Amino acid sequence: MQNNTTRKSALLTMALLALLFAAGCAKKQNTNIAPPLHTPENTLKENVEYAVDVYDPLEPMNRRIYTFNYYFDKFLFLPVVNTYEFIMPDYVEDRVSNFVDNIFEFNNFTNNLLQLKFRSTAITLGRFLVNSTIGVAGLWDPATGMGMIRQTEDFGQTLGHYGVGNGPYIVLPILGPSNLRDTTGLVTDAVAFGAAGPPAWVDDDDTTLIFNGVAAVDKRHRQSFRYYSTGSPFEYEMIRMLYSSKREIEIMK
Amino acid sequence: MLNQLLRLFAVCVCLLLCCSLANAYDYPFANRYVATVVGTPAEFAEVLPADIPTKIGKIKIFPDRKVPGVLWNMDELYYSYQRQEGPAPLIFLVAGTGASFKSSKMQMMQRAFYNAGFNVVSLSSPTHPNFIVAASTSSVPGDLQEDSADLYNVMKAVWGKLQDKMNVTEFYLTGYSLGAAQSAFIAKLDEQEKAFNFKKVLMINPPVSLYNSVEILDNLLVDNIPGGLDHFNEFYQKVVKAFGETYAHGDKVEFNDQFLYEAYKYKKPQSDEPLEALIGVSFRISSQNMVFTSDVMTKAGYVVSRDIELGRHDHITPYLKVLGRLTFLDYFEGIFMPHFKALDPSITESAMIQQLSMRSIENYLRTSPKIGMIHNEDDIILQPGEIDYLRDVLGSRATIYPHGGHCGNMAYPENVNAMVGFFQSTQKN
């Protein structure tokens, strides 16, 4: 049953992507145009590298998904998040965040282990044990107070740690900026989480479904990023550049 | 013996007193570039309420204006306001170059003024893309007179929408950086139009000559990237690496407002160059946004061909790269002057440069008791002598701190108190 839903949503996503891609191809060209005062030809030198150049062969599609995400946020995701924030006292929101974080320690654990970071692996295990017991099923986070700081790692970072490059930039529907390496990581983490993590321990589809929903709302609630809120006409380029740099920084850790 | 001890004691007391007088202003960064980049980290800043009831409004100033696809999300002007329950004064805040109504400095000011009992309305700078598209008459930003008139129009329009919601006793106005210069011009305009009859107007770190300040900021980038702009990518990668090391070294370092300060503490740059370059980068990014928006709106044919109508999903990265290589002064020559020459062929470049200066309203600044100023002795956007000029013009209405760089000390407790206190002193009288 769970497999079935996953397959259905995967199909739906594929169909959506195909549609957006088709829209991206239908593009008319304008010939006979007067050149502006400053052109790339008379301003830019060859063999100079530009920080804003990120490998982005899917750009036409990515830009459309970026816009799609803006509308998805505006008309569906953020209203749900806002309602959640309106109903829930801040105190309860924080408990939910802690609970979600605690469940996802599973991925931190596997990825720290895969990167052979044994100290971080031990800390993660310690956090999970302390927070699940003293912290009442992860609702509170006494581990941080004991000096066990959260050691976030995902499979994209693990791949990066072993030298896998970014690959093409990808804007994922709903999830936002990513690249081929990090998307691979995301899928791998999700599969591992479902197959061997807490959902497999619980083995109850309804519980997993509810948890996934709560986790999605909680993550958006904690993410202050809003599409088209920088006020820059070059937001797409800026986010593309900063995403790549941010991941580079996270992989260095 | 006792006498000697007493004398020693007296000397000590004197020394202590002198020291405390010399260090009377304790803002932590004496280096002007460090101050400008790092600002006031939370541990040194005035403690202000984090959550204030902020509402975002939007308004259409030119209902018939057509907006090209690439700027599709900017056709309405966004602003924010905080409302007091009972009768209270209303203060307008004007953002600095390229900044929006919700920049971190604006948010700090909103919290300070709301906390002190003011209604607050915050407006983006006329150099911000949203303002250029939605509220600028010419969509060619940079003219102090015209931009200030546009701001004044926006204030009247916004007040038209808010006046039923607020019980306002009197009006105040302030702004930082370019917004400070515009505040003075707006105040002068208001003397004739009297839409608000501003009781008091405060300029925080204003420039004297826009042309001079812009030239300084342009050069900060060009002069401080090792090897020149061709090597910008190497500089950028180095910064990313430095940030990465900062992030990796401590368990508790997170990406937030404090991160720049953490990076500064961890890497402690050996010279001013990287900091100067960072200020230059930040200014160049603002310029890129501003110039591109103006070019597209006015079809100036500056970096975008006049014959192209850019759509919402077009590949515009090449324009960004070209604009990365152009200075603000290139914009002055390529869009700004041609626009104003078309309106008035007799105007010369030097006459225009004079017009873009506080000197053009010197008499008003000298004689108007309602205008006050907070500034820093070591502000990086001023040329030598310009701070003395401002001190001379504003006299006792100027508060000038020994350091703080450009707006770096705005959130420092003493500065926040001076900023809010400037307006509160009239309320009590």
Give the topology, please.
The complex is a heterodimer of chains A (253) and B (429).
Chain A (H helix, E strand, L loop, with lengths): L1 H24 L14 H4 L15 H29 L2 H14 L1 H10 L3 H16 L8 H4 L9 H7 L7 E4 L3 E4 H17 L1 H5 L2 H18 L12 H18 L1
Antiparallel strand pairs in A: 1-2
Helix pairs in contact in A: 1-3, 3-11, 4-11, 5-6, 8-9, 8-12
Chain B lengths: L1 H21 L9 H7 L15 E6 L17 E6 L5 E7 L9 H12 L3 E5 L5 H6 L9 H19 L5 E9 L1 H16 L6 E5 L5 H15 L7 H18 L9 H9 L5 H26 L18 H8 L3 H16 L5 H7 L6 H6 L3 E6 L9 H9 L3 E4 L11 H16 L1
Parallel strand pairs in B: 3-4, 3-5, 5-6, 6-7, 7-8
Antiparallel strand pairs in B: 1-2, 2-4
Helix pairs in contact in B: 2-10, 5-6, 7-10, 8-9, 10-11
What does this structure look like?
The complex is a heterodimer of chains A (253) and B (429). Chain A contains twelve helices and two strands; from the N terminus they run ααααααααββαααα. Chain A is mainly α. In chain A, β1 (169-172) and β2 (176-179) form a beta hairpin. In chain A, α8 (155-161) crosses α12. Chain A starts with a helix and ends with a helix. Helices cover 49% and strands 11% of the residues of chain B. An eight-stranded mixed beta sheet of chain B has the order 1-2-4-3-5-6-7-8, sandwiched between helices. In chain B, α3 (104-115) links the parallel β3 (88-94) and β4. Chain B starts with a helix and ends with a helix. Mean pLDDT of chain B is 92; it is low at 17-21. At the A-B interface, α3 and α12 of A face α8, α10 and α11 of B.
Task: Give a nutshell description of this structure.
Chain A is built from twelve helices and two strands. Chain A is mostly helical and 253 residues long.
Q: Would you state the CATH class of the largest domain in chain B? A: Alpha Beta
* Count, helices of chain A: 12
Order of strands side by side in the largest beta sheet of chain A?
1-2
> Taking Cα atoms only, what radius of gyration of chain B do you get, to the nearest Å?
23 Å
Distance between the termini of chain A: 39 Å
Number of strands of chain A: 2
N- to C-terminal distance of chain B:
55 Å
Biggest sheet details of chain B: 8 strands, mixed
Question: Which geometry of chain B do the CA atoms define?
Answer: globular
Could you give the order of strands across the largest sheet of chain B? 1-2-4-3-5-6-7-8
CATH H-tier superfamily of the largest domain in chain B: Alpha/Beta hydrolase fold, catalytic domain
The CATH architecture name of the largest domain in chain B reads 3-Layer(aba) Sandwich
Count of runs of 4 or more consecutive helical residues of chain B: 16
Percent helix of chain B, as a range, is 40-55%
Main beta sheet strand tally, sense and closure of chain A: 2 strands, antiparallel
Uncertain parts of chain B:
17-21
Low-confidence segments of chain A, given as residue ranges, are none
Keywords (chain B): Signal
GO cellular component, one term (chain B): membrane
Signal peptide (chain B): 1-24
InterPro entries (chain B): AB_hydrolase_fold (IPR029058), MlaA (IPR007428)
